[in-house]
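lol forgot to send this yesterday, sorry. struct tokens for the thing we talked abt
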């Protein structure tokens, strides 16, 4: 992995130091550290096989003593020794200088100084993009120049001439657009990751010298996002959505045009014509009108994408004439497919453009992030931060998002009949810590609890348990993370921040030396598991032989486990652990009238909402089947979360759900937007989601992202909904509906819930 980099980086006090940045893998950095250490720590055991989760393998986990986050913590409240200029002032000043440089490189005499200044300062010339910031300004400015008139612009080759170095305009002239670009760059990072504050994003941009792509790499490095941090992919919907958010923040006249500019492919041979002035090693070359014309030609090619394919209906509906662009091999191709649905032939034509993006012009001057960190450490050493540190909170959010994906993976893996039977146990006691991978741990812990600690008999009127209350899923995820952190801390002398760094680096997979009886006991207790002592004993008793058998049953290479396979897993647990006593459910406690009435109301509301959501999902899946005839037909299997979105003219619901194919061989995660009444301008729809890209994540104390949304700017502004981590410890709707417990404590909690709700309503009336 390599990138171009700015020629300098600011030190912790805002001064510039020469440095060139690229990336090396964590394993390379670890090897280098070991050579420098006189007594290196023993390396951890290899990460257990990725048995049930088909995600990219993470690098070998670092020891809990290593730290990251310097890019986030330096110049923050954690950096008590910092005395320099605040980032909110230093970064806009830097951006102003970048604008002066970009203006000086453009042929302002030929294009017209006033016209060029207007284009740059109108919001169209923001420095958002995937090239270096000066190239982004140049490219974005050319894209919004007034219509090209050959009589106005002399497109003959401009003779070489001497130009004065430095900006031809006073610095203050850029302050408006510089500040606008500052906010749009911050908005991109916050939209792209979700788990960053505005102040954090500004600090990452400061160290990257306003280079957006490099700032993304620094964040990914700090959060262990991948074995090798990746540049933002121009073809990714997540990148495109973040670019649109940034352009909208800058009040760009046409945000979609900016997105297309940086994400539409161009034929390689044409794109290379721009390399001499947009690529690396140009030495700040001044552009000629010929160069401007080259960019205009590339932009024109992008703009014509809508003409690649169109059709005309023949009179009287007797046929259709289809027109497709005659692409050369390096430009693209038309893809033709035929299929049959309900005795009707289906003919599909798709356009696939080939080529590279402007971002491919980035350079190949390398060193490592390790060298960049050395420069920071030479300026100032920074001690470990506390739990209130923004970097620590970002790590926690990243882990919450990771764990949420584990549970969704379980829902897509389990057969529908098994999932219906285990759903209550997954939400109540299916924590993801243990000696196997997180997904397998959820399944094993849930089956074990169902065998040895059965829940009270479920309400016979509820045939299947769907998750309508998103806080019930958030609660088990929060408790799982608490258990994972406690497990790491119990087996090493580390802080909360170090434990979370270890978990991020290992993707929550525990190494063999972390699987200790004391660790499992501590983890289960910290996670508030309802049978923490018994769970700790159970996890400790799993021998390597039993674990090998369980892994063979749950290995993803063997396909999705069948009902028979999971029955065998339950049989193995019962056979290998005969000493575990099956406890009968505690005697039901009597509920007071108010609590009993509340329970009846909650169950009635749940049943009505469940029937309504399922009927709507059946309709959007029929629509999906007609639009995707090449895919199998799906039926709703389980609802994984419902979030109501408040609109003035309709009721709108955002839903995650798993749908199973008619054959039962395939289950997929879907997102649905249900609009009632269904507007022609805003119809209900559903689409498939991919679990390999976690995308945005945000888990605050009072608000959070509780379901997975499509990577779209339409949802980046509304995916964070009310109620967060602190609300998971109160009585939830699922506690009334799912019959997790009916003991005396439940009766007391139900009474308190009713009293608190009554007090809230009275306060609301006042």
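and heres what i got for the seq, position by position
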């Amino acid at each position: 992995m390599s990138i171009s980099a700015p020629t300098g980086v600011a030190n912790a006090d805002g001064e510039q130091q020469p440095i060139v940045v690229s990336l090396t893998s964590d394993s390379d950095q670890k090897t280098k550290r070991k050579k420098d250490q006189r007594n290196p720590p023993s390396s951890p055991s290899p990460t257990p096989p990725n048995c049930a989760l088909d995600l990219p393998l993470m690098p070998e986990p670092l020891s809990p003593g290593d730290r990251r986050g310097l890019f986030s913590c330096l110049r923050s409240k954690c950096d008590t020794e910092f005395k320099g200029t605040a980032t909110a002032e230093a970064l806009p000043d830097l951006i102003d200088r970048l604008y002066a440089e970009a203006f000086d490189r453009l042929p302002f005499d030929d294009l017209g100084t006033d016209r060029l200044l207007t284009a740059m300062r109108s919001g169209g010339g923001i420095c958002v993009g995937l090239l270096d910031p000066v190239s982004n300004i140049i490219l974005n400015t050319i894209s919004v120049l007034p219509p090209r008139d050959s009589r106005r612009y002399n497109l003959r080759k401009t003779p070489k001439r001497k130009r004065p170095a430095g900006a031809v305009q006073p610095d203050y002239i850029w302050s408006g657009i510089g500040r606008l670009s500052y906010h749009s760059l911050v908005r991109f990072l916050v939209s792209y990751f979700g788990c960053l504050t505005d102040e954090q994003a500004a600090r990452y941009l400061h160290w990257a010298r306003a280079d957006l792509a490099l700032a993304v790499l620094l964040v990914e490095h700090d959060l262990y996002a991948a074995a090798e941090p990746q540049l933002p992919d121009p073809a990714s919907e997540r990148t495109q959505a973040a670019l649109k958010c940034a352009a909208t923040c800058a009040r760009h006249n046409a945000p979609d045009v900016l997105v297309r500019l940086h994400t539409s492919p161009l034929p390689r041979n044409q794109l290379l014509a721009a390399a001499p002035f947009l690529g690396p090693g140009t030495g700040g070359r001044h552009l000629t009108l010929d160069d401007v014309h080259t960019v205009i030609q590339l932009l024109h090619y992008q703009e014509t994408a809508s003409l690649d394919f169109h059709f005309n209906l023949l009179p009287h509906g007797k046929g259709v004439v289809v027109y497709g662009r005659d692409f050369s091999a390096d430009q693209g191709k038309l893809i033709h497919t035929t299929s049959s649905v309900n005795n009707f032939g289906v003919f599909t034509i798709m356009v696939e453009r080939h080529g590279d993006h402007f971002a491919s012009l980035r350079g190949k001057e390398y060193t490592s992030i390790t060298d960049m960190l050395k420069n920071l450490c030479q300026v100032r050493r920074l001690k470990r931060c506390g739990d209130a540190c923004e970097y620590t909170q970002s790590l926690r959010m990243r882990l919450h998002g990771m764990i949420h994906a584990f549970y969704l993976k379980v829902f897509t893996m389990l057969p529908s009949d098994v999932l219906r039977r285990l759903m209550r146990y997954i939400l109540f006691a299916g924590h993801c810590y243990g000696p196997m991978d997180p997904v397998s741990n959820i399944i094993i812990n849930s089956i074990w609890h169902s065998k040895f600690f059965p829940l009270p008999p479920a309400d016979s009127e509820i045939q299947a348990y769907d998750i309508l209350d998103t806080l019930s899923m958030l609660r088990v995820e929060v408790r799982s993370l608490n258990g994972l952190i406690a497990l790491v801390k119990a087996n090493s002398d580390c802080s909360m921040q170090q434990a979370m760094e270890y978990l991020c680096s290992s993707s929550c997979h525990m190494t063999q030396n972390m699987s200790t009886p004391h660790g499992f006991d501590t983890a289960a207790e910290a996670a508030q598991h309802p049978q923490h002592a018994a769970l700790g004993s159970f996890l400790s008793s799993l021998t390597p032989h039993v674990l090998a058998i369980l892994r063979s049953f749950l290995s993803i290479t063997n396909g999705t486990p069948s009902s028979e396979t999971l029955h065998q897993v339950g049989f193995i647990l019962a056979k290998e652990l005969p000493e575990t006593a099956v406890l009968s459910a505690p005697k039901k406690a009597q509920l007071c009238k108010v609590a009993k009435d509340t329970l009846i109301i909650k169950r009635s509301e749940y049943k009505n909402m469940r029937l309504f959501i399922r009927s709507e999902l059946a309709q959007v899946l029929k629509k999906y089947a007609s639009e995707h005839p090449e895919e199998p037909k799906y039926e709703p299997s389980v609802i994984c979360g419902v979030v109501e979105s408040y609109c003035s003219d309709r009721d709108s619901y955002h839903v995650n759900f798993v749908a199973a194919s008619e054959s039962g061989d395939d289950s997929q995660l879907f997102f649905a937007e249900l609009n009632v009444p269904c507007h022609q301008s805003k119809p209900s729809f559903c689409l498939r989601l991919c679990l390999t890209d976690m995308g945005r994540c945000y888990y605050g104390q009072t608000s959070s992202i509780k379901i997975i949304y499509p990577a779209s700017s339409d949802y980046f502004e509304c995916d964070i909904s009310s109620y967060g981590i602190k609300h998971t410890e109160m009585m939830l709707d699922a506690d009334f509906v799912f019959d997790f417990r009916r003991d005396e404590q439940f009766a007391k909690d139900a009474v308190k819930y009713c009293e608190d709700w009554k007090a809230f309503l009275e306060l609301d009336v006042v």
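The chain has 28 helices and twelve strands. anyway ping me if u want another try
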